Amino acid sequence: xxxxxxxxxxxxxxxxxxxxxxxxxxxxxxxxxxxxxxxxxxxxxxxxxxxxxxxxxxxxxxxxxxxxxxxxxxxxxxxxxxxxxxxxxxxxxxxxxxxxxxxxxxxxxxxxxxxxxxxxxxxxxxx
Length: 127
Known about the structure:
mainly alpha; elongated; PA2817-like; Dehydrogenase
């Protein structure tokens, strides 16, 4: 998985998360803070710039204000967005995603593309 494919993979993960979040909050009024957050997540995922600019603050808001929804966030998005989002990952998860990034970089240096999901599964098995 090269950088472009990884970006697309993470954008796809974000879209799946945001769409599900919007569906789960559909019964709420649009002015409800949880519904506003879900709609904000969906809007931020429409392009890479929005995701980078808004994603970290939206996830921080979710984790601090509505922690019951935190388990619905794909963990790799926390790594992908970095910064404040890294505080929500355990040390083991940080190590896993660091190793995945290194494997992806090494493969790119060799002109190869790794299957991200397969590499992640392999690393999880070895822990």
